[in-house]
């Protein structure tokens, strides 16, 4: 199975769903990570180009630990005005190039403006990518199976899906520690693990977890039965 | 796998998720249906006892078509004042007796007062049934895997889960037609199929579908991969 | 009385409120339909120009059946980025040209991006059209009486207004069948009638109905009395 | 036409919709006001019985000015625990006795606990009163035409319906001044008129207005045309 | 302490929080008012330039009465399309120039499109102004203490903060009366005072008040104690 | 200043606002903690009486570390049906006995049923305690200054107030460690600190923090100035 994760900024994918990604990779899935903005801000005293380079290097290191592969993203300039609709077409093209079964990105209620821009565009591209519209953007892909939203700046008030990442805790911690610039700036190393620990307590009764919104999952009854008959389910 | 469906009134299970239930049964799951209220109202000119009997007979016939088995429910009197908390303890006992992996019931936004009572109690019983609390209500069960909400009186504005029921359309139609009293009163035979057809168009691009809210699904990454690798997924 | 219906795409007016429009026309109102986007996508294997032509012809045929008249709309290119504010000025001009008493369009919670763009712009243009602002856009019209939102891709969770369209059912069905391209693509013929049937069951207890949000209706007490004294009311 | 207004406490009907009621009465409607709670609290230093008497006398005087008639209400003790469902049955009986076309009461978002209790019970009784259920509560009435919610302690964030009460301003002011006990306690005389003035400015561009939520209005297209063709509409 | 108030249009600051501003000034704070749009519309029969001049003169007079000082704002053309993100950068620059401890502006739920644009941009600029990003926009300021939202066109459904302005009532009234053009157009003189009177009744039990949303206040426990120990608190 | 904290269950006060309470105490406030439910469930294999005793002893130890004092609460039996309105009267009596300036309790969106019961009752008792109603429940107190909601089972999506608890981190950790039974059951020791660490990162840019909803704070302008001029503010 192929999974695509959209991260507005370099580190969102690790904070929001690094444990889940490591679990996907460990179970044999191909996990692609694509950054929407170019990383040209967020480290004091660096030029835009140096900042971009530094943040991308951090993301490469984190992806390696999690077992993911970076794919070129939209490369939009950080923190500049972007019209919501303008992200939709490049996302359709990206989905048609990468053809994932599962798409993850920031949840729609995140208080960061750029996270919400990405979340809104994902909802559109999710169904348009498999429609016959826009032949100039590539061959339509098969309908995607599910769209999951992860949490970074704003916690999800009512999580539809909880993924147990207890077994991936050390990989997540190690991946977070690659983002030295963001840990220095606001303590995301401890903050990201703190959130997963809190989620483990409240959603699993212990261990570590990641929480997701779930929009537009398409299944049939057979899938659901397979799912809940699997040895990992219904813990 | 064992599935438990809670229906406030006799026919809600068929309207809201009859196609999905038929799909579960066809795929080998054991599907239990339990009615919360006693069916003593809802047919003009019948005594409470006769009404109850008539509605239960309709439910039996529908369940037979869908491949489900009725299990005794809470048997609360229809349309009488019920304190929200009062449903929680009998639901815990029911979950501990039946021990399902998956629980379905009305979604939390239904405009029928009694549907919302059931939805609220399900959210509590869902986690309490596996806690050590209330030993007098039975041996704690394993944590349930997921809680799904189906739609009857109020459509779900933003469905998390879409189940393709195209292959179960005729069974759903036949089961709805068992509820003669409700079809006579408000046309639920055509209304229930109308909703599934609309959901097929908007959520699948054709065919028939049932829409669900999804709350508190617990998985690990392996489950998700199995799910989306299954032949039925990602249509 | 003059009514203006804004439809993002060619068929939304028929799906969302075709029965109500036919009822308006049958009762003597002048019903104008205006499409916001140009119909240049949505049919596989056609050029933009041919697609536009085909969709407009379908809309003409449907309008004829419903008793409506098409008026030139905003003609914005389909599925391209549009800045929300950019629709407001052309809508003000359209309202000043057509001077309706009643305005209908998609409701604000539709999950289609372009439906929400139209809904947001309608809310602004609704009051600005009668203000002295923007004399370059035409002579201010009288304040409009009401703004109604119809449902297409996302059902309205809590409908303020239900219109009984049982008597217009065949006209709606016939108008939907004019939209051959959309029926082929996703079954909107059956899907649209399915929604009206479901609405009839849940909102009227039988028959067919269309559901609306209602924002900013302005009345005085006399109007309300006339309304509820009319022979058609309080069925 | 007959209108029924439910007021949790003695003065809510005047604050929330006194101008509209006066307009109804002036236009020839029969306007009934029924208080849900018994008025036994709310005036310092009075016994429950004296408080009840005093508040009822104030309500009688206000109703006389507005042209309404008080009808016996539910007479529940003020500010005591009441189970939400417990109000539904007496409300059904009241609706079957009074058989109004139009029902008004507090809107569902009011922050006063007892206002929300009444709003919730109204939504249920609104449809149950015309159903065949509960023959012991009286002969089912015809379906009501509309359910309107007025504002008292919490303003309505998004008003569906605005009623121009400029012509009834003096009657509303005079009726408010009958509630001496509440004006002394918290200035409701000025506060109620202040709200109507603010509503006039924001919703009508001047004059005085009352704002309402509107839930479940049932019409056909002919009614809507009559409505917006009436001389009072579209001001 | 320095306070900055953002007003979309000339008069919003007085309607929404004029009494609070006068209270701040009387207590020794430095209160700056900045208008986001240029005031080129909103008075019939004036050219854009004359309108702008007239509205600015009204704002100057009102500010003088309230004890505030106008500072140059963003000067964006009124009622033209503006991309949401486009306001963020000039707001960051403004915050870095003025370096306030407290920021007020329209609340996020106002139904005026331009009010919501300002509210959305304020939320972003609020935290970005003190970040190291965008050195070209000025030297980062200290983190702001609080972001308050005031009400104009849409009342706040659930106010977090109530400020007693009884002692500033006359100043607010006098400042409102400076906005002759807006009072003529829609009665904002009486409407603004009406809202404050209603808020006094419902939120303080008498007197006049202004209501606010409160987002992102940052304190420590000592601050809270000082606050609630102050002689003015806990009235 | 006197602060009252309502905790549904023994440990909620420490998880939700233990750092803030320690800060209050350190700054000289008198901090009272009152538990609503009796602690008779929540530890496997103990009788109700033993469970109650054990949980109370844990709460005593935690309160000692935080510098708070336990006061007798409502002592309602854990996890039994409680009618929402039934909590209001005992809460009024408690507020009149303890007469706090500031009231804290669970926020209204917590997914635990009993937390929401407490939150709803607090909103009512908050204003009723200072009203002349219910003289049998004690002498009315002065109006309270503010009502704050803390987070336990469900994070607050949009926190109004952030309190920096970096300086109280060790006390919070030590108090959490007194709740051995809850830490054993679901890891609340690590989970509670994890949440505070996440909040420090996202809301302060480092350190530890607690997040609150804020409802009904009443101030005048002078208080706000004092607040934001205090040395602790605007960090």
Reading off the top of the CATH hierarchy, the class of chain A is best stated as Alpha Beta
CATH topology of chain A: Rossmann fold
Q: Summarize the largest interface: chains and residue counts.
A: A-B, 50 and 50 residues
The domain count of chain A comes to 1
Low-confidence spans of chain A: pLDDT under 50, at least 5 residues?
A: 231-235
| SSE arrangement of chain A, N to C | EHEHEHEHEEHHHEEH
Report mean pLDDT of chain A, rounded to a whole number.
91
CATH-assigned homologous superfamily of chain A: LmbE-like
Work out the radius of gyration of chain A.
17 Å
Note the total helix count of chain A. 8
Portion in strands of chain A:
15-25%
Intertermini distance of chain A: 23 Å
Query: What general form of chain A does the structure show?
Result: globular
* Corresponding CATH architecture of chain A: 3-Layer(aba) Sandwich
Oligomer: homohexamer
Helix content of chain A: 40-55%
Major sheet of chain A, described briefly? 7 strands, mixed
Task: Describe what this molecule looks like in 3D.
Chains A, B, C, D, E, F: GO terms for molecular function: hydrolase activity, acting on carbon-nitrogen (but not peptide) bonds, in linear amides. Six copies of one chain form a homohexamer. Chain A is α/β, with parallel strands linked by helices and about 240 residues long. Chain A has a single domain (about 1-230), classed as LmbE-like (Rossmann fold, 3-Layer(aba) Sandwich). Chain A is built from eight helices and eight strands; from the N terminus they run βαβαβαβαββαααββα. In chain A, strands 3-2-1-4-5-7-6 form a seven-stranded mixed β-sheet, with helices on both faces. In chain A, strand 4 (about 100-105), helix 4 and strand 5 form a beta-alpha-beta unit. In chain A, helix 1 crosses helix 5 and helix 3 (about 90-100) packs across helix 4. The longest helix of chain A has 19 residues, at about 50-65. Mean pLDDT of chain A is about 90; it is low at about 230-235. Chains in contact: A-B, A-C, A-E, A-F, B-C, B-D, B-F, C-D, C-E, D-E, D-F, E-F.
